[in-house]
Amino acid sequence: MKLLSSLSLTIVLTGGQFTFTETTPLQAQPCSYGKEIINGEVVCRCAPDEVRFSINLVTDNYPQETEWTISTCDGDEMIQGSYASKNTEHSDSYCLAGDQAYTFEIIDTYGDGICCGYGGGNYALYVEGLEVFRSEGTFGSSEVTKVNGDCTASLASPSISPVASLVTDETSVPSFSSHMPSLILSNSPSLNKSGLPSSIPTSLPSNEYTKLPSLTPSNSPSLQNSNEPSSSPFGGFTLMEIKPLQAQPCSYGKETFNGEVVCRCAPDEVRFSVNLVTDNYPQETKWTLSTCEGDEILQSSYASRNTEHNDSYCIAGDQAYTFEIIDTYGDGICCGYGEGNYTLFVDGIELFRSEGAFRSREVTKVNGDCSSHSERPNEAPSTIPSVKTRIDLPTTSPTNSLIPSMKPSISHIPSKIPTLLPSNTLSLFPSSAPSPTTELFGTTCIDDESYEFTLSNGNTADCTWFLHYNPLIAFRRNMYCNGNTLLRCKKSCGRCSSDEIPLDDENFQFIIDGELQTCSWISDSSNSDMYNVLSRQKSYCQQSYNGVLIADKCKLSCYEAAVLPKKGLLMNKNAAKKGASHFGGFISWYANYKQEPYEGTFHREFIDQHGIEFVPMFAQNWLDHPDGTKRCFYEDYDVNGYVLQRNDDFPVCTQQDAITILQESKAKSSPNSIPMTYVMGWNEQYINPSTKMTPKHMAYYYAKYLQPAAKASGLKIVSPTLHGGSVAWFAEFLDHCYKAKGDAQNPCDIFSMEKFAIHTYDCRYDLWTNWYSGNGSRLVKKLVNELEARLGNVENWENYVLARPLWITETSCFNERTSPSFNFDNSYETPKANAKEQCERITGQSQSIHGDGSLVAMENISTIERYAWWTTWHTKMKPHYLTYKDGTITQVGEAYKRIGDSSVNCEYPGTKVFADDISVVITSPATLLDCQVTNTKMVKLMKLGGSATFTVNVPLDGNYAINVSYISEEPRNLKVKVNKNAVDPNDVFAKTFNFYSTGDNSWCEGGTGSTHVVPLELKKFKAGSNTITFGNDGDEDSPVIEWIALVPKQD
Fold first, then answer.
1. Three-class secondary structure of residue 680 per DSSP
2. How far apart are CA 306 and CA 577, in angstroms?
3. Do 1005 and 923 meet the contact criterion of CB atoms below 8 Å apart?
4. Which of 520, 505, 508 shows the shortest CA–CA distance to 545?
5. Per UniProt, what is one Pfam family of this protein (predicted)?
6. What Å distances lie between residue 830 and 818, 998, 1002, CA to CA?
7. CB of 1045 within 8 A of CB of 962?
8. Among 989, 997, 1024, which residue's Cα sits nearest to residue 830?
9. Average pLDDT over residues 827-853
């Protein structure tokens, strides 16, 4: 155990020695008055104003993964413990200030706790000898416990006498409720937004403010948002003098209307009112009211959170306007961070009400339609507001709407794109190009050469883009051949031999959730992802309105030419909201190895916003609570004397438990999300036969829990996972299940599995076509042969296997094999592929071995329905995650969004600092050497005491990731610390990282092989210059470092 003294460390560049300088005294003391024996144990004797804190911990088989800290309410780490001896009991005690509260946090870097798959670890905490908390070690990644009181209470009224108080947060779910700075260190990254002061002021010097605009316009209005504090009061607006504007604050003063003080307007004006309730982050919200020419006449922003604002204005009655509300963070004003909403009124009549879940922006027409006003102005203001319609403002490039507008607008500029249909009204200006005939919709098949559309990455493309890259034709057509693009790119979308593409009835209107809609609403993707379009098609096209089937009137908008993309996302509780947001528009499904999205996180909000399907999973031999913690363990089932290990502190799962969990999870799905359709079976039970299910176990639990729960919940079953090397194991499972089909209590039905789940970590295009391309593939042949050998010809096994599409529920390039015959043997490549290499492999930049890459293969193989990369982010140090811990996207993540795109930049972000850089300080016995493997200088830390210190600059305080290039023949540890000496045994801040082997004989002096690059997540950087020290305090050689690169944070 290591104790943080009241001393900071300053590096001295001589022989690895260090000097101590006094800083703020801290309360932790090793043993203030020596030690004493209590109940047969040697413990600390503490001062009268202190309490004795003790921890008894038994390590598991991998002690190097376990560490813990004690921190003050200010977040200062006082004590840190880490371990090296496996399956060993450790008992340690310390003296803490009796009038202070603390936070104890234990972390397992692999994420499986210290029990029970790899040893029987556990721990207990004591204050003054009294047990305040005991854990059986099944905490997953981390567990947090309050010690000696609560931080909030401690700060408010410090305790005079020590109290052994305890509150436990076993689930480690980040709080969404508080936006004040946390008083204790969080055990996981915050998923909500920063509670730090905004750069936008929250108050003004005046104690009172007016909601009315200044009657004198600004002499030099800004045409864009200012970074400087606004001089207008919060909740108000700013008038900008660009040309004479119609908006007036209150032309004839104010009056009381329905109990509210509102503007009294001139006879030729209408009163426009906005009632808005802000959410927890009001500074992100602003709105504008613009004329049809695009001139902003009103603008408002807010500073007071969770506050109702009522404002009214006078606008010209013979003009139409566009109201646009924007949330700069992109999550609207409801519902994850407060319950914001707003309502628009014209002359006191409600025009539009929004519940605030509009994501980035929402646009509403006010006082009529711009095209109708420009054609024939009203003689007098309308007393009835126009029907609410969401629109897009004019843009300089094509919008991503999937369906063309069916109402012609009057433009003063000749169109460069010919119209698709003859207009019912006369054109005021001649067209600059001839109109095509209606043959576009008939037997003649052509593309509109002038048409462009927007891709999901923001780029534009024309019709020929579909045919540019042969392996991706099918994928691109599935993604984009719908709506307007299907009409304009009929030839490139492969629709030449099809019947005439149907059109919408432009006059048909229907009501959805109290709002009047037209057909184009179904396929409007201007404010959402295309997957929401598909969701609306499925939800509403088969509904009837006034006795008419919507699909019969909205034939084009309901035309399902597209299919949901195959791509999915795997996320655990530690994934950042910012990280998930990169992929919302690129995926159709998500899984977390649990039975429902984590309660109390952003996950459900995320899938609702993007129209993503959640797929639950029965991953291990237990079921989970909504927050992800264990709920119950399966009943014992003896297979030849082997019973799965389970925790007796939890109840035994009943069949009804399994049913209830899935039904409750399904019931929580919101109307905006894709309904739950599938449930997946167990995860990688073939890996460790001594701790996982045997095939016979799995058949029994399949019939006992999964099969009846899926049936009762109306869900389809995806099989337990297998891969090319576990075909015989999987066939044995099917064998046991098939033979139990007549079981009186739990009949097992292999035909209830509609999909097969596959895990394969290999990015070679040819491997995927060799193993998984349907009839004649190696998977089909091997599985059919195994089933015939076990069960004979009682069924047509080839038909059985071919009838089940594949879901690739985990994949990456990290454990790729080198076998040229694509055997699933132990010929793993060393070193394993780093992030740059994996990026290149899935974007077609490694053609000689990987061709176009595994993901392009999955898109092209028709028998593969879905796939997902493992994983978004995980606590285990590996180089194939899609994001860093803070949500910054990696090059692998960018490649996952743009598979097969060889223009993706796969280089490591940031500036590399090499070992021989003049700024790097090397402390003996570490040494700089010429590495024969890389032909570069590398620093070898040698043994016991050597260190290397790199200097980096960061713009803001916080935690940052770095990438490290190194060589190491064996798995070795390094201690790493920001702004501290990582080698001194008294420095408890240093974190130990385990570096993978880069291959046999992988050393600089006469060795072979190549470097590997891994990401490290480091804490407590300060704005400006920082040092990162690598140290070796062991008696073995450590990894040899070539360079490091700090990962810049993304906005």
1. strand
2. 22
3. no
4. 508
5. Glyco_hydro_cc
6. 9, 6, 10
7. yes
8. 997
9. 92
- Supply the pLDDT for residue 502: 64
- Cis status, amide bond into 422, omega within 30 of 0: no
**Angle between helix 727-739 and helix 778-791 axes, rounded to 10 deg:** 40
Residue with tokens 């959410």: 279
The answer, yes or no, to whether the previous bond of 377 is cis (omega within 30 of 0) is no
| Farthest CA pair distance, the chain | 101
pLDDT for 372-398, tens place per residue? Answer: 544 333 333 333 333 323 223 333 333
- 904: number of Cβ within 10 Å: 20
Run of H or E including 856: helix 854-860
CA terminus-to-terminus distance, the chain = 39
Q: Which positions ≥6 away from 325 have C-beta within 8 Å?
A: 285, 286, 287, 342, 354, 358, 361, 362
CA 62 to chain centre: 29
Q: Tell me how far apart the alpha carbons of residues 566 and 762 are, in angstroms, rounded to a whole number.
A: 18
Q: Are 929 and 1004 in contact (CB under 8 A)?
A: yes
Is residue 190 scored above 50 in pLDDT? no
From the list 185, 889, 873, the residue with the least C-alpha distance to 881 is 873
CA of residue 206 relative to chain centroid, distance: 42
Rounded Cα distance between 623 and 854, Å, is: 33
Number of helical (H) and strand (E) elements in the chain, helices listed first? 20, 55
Tokens 């402390």 belong to: 923
Check residue 935 and give left, alpha or beta (phi > 0: left; psi -120 to 50: alpha): left
Beta pairing class for 1024-1031 and 361-366 = unpaired
Confidence check: pLDDT of 323 > 50: yes
Distance CA 569, CA 548 (A): 39
Cα–Cα distances in angstroms (integers) from residue 1038 to residues 86, 361, 917, in the given order:
21, 53, 20
Q: Is the dihedral of CA 784, 788, 790, 795 positive or negative?
A: positive
138 contacts: CB under 8 Å, gap ≥ 6: 113, 115, 116, 630, 647
Are the C-beta atoms of residues 580 and 606 closer than 8 Å to each other? yes
Phi, psi for 410 (deg, rounded to 5): -90, 115
Cβ–Cβ < 8 Å for 883, 796: no
> What's the mean pLDDT in 202-214?
36
Using the 8-state DSSP alphabet, how is residue 466 labeled? G
Structure-block tokens of residue 365:
């027409």
Q: Write out the two tokens for 418.
A: 């010919």
Identify residue 415 by its one-letter amino acid code.
S
- Category of 628 on φ-ψ map: left (φ > 0), alpha (ψ -120 to 50) or beta: left
d(CA 1010, CA 966): 9
Q: Report the predicted TM-score, pTM, of the whole model to 2 decimal places.
A: 0.55
Assigned token pair, 528 = 């959402």
Of residues 236, 333, 212, 250, the one with CA closest to residue 284: 333
Query: Could you report the per-residue pLDDT of 555-591, keeping only the tens digit for each?
Result: 877 765 444 678 999 999 889 999 999 998 778 899 9
Q: d(Cα 978, Cα 952) in Å, to the nearest integer?
A: 10
Kindly state the tokens that stand for 907: 């280089």
In this structure, what token pair is assigned to residue 789? Answer: 């050998």
Give the integer Cα–Cα distance in Å for 215 and 663: 59
- Helix or strand or coil: residue 1034? coil
Q: Which two tokens stand for residue 19?
A: 């000097």
Question: Which helix (H) or strand (E) is 765 found in, with range?
Answer: helix 765-772
Encoded amino acid at 1001, one letter: N
Please give the Cα distance from 922 to 258 (Å, whole number). 76
What's the Cα-to-Cα distance from 91 to each of 44, 237, 458, rounded to whole Å?
A: 11, 63, 58
Answer yes or no: is pLDDT of 788 > 50: yes
User: Rounded to an integer, what distance in angstroms lies between the CA atom of residue 266 and that of residue 263?
Assistant: 10
Residue found by looking up tokens 């000696």 in the block: 148
Kindly give the interhelix angle for 778-791 and 765-772, rounded to the nearest 10 degrees: 30
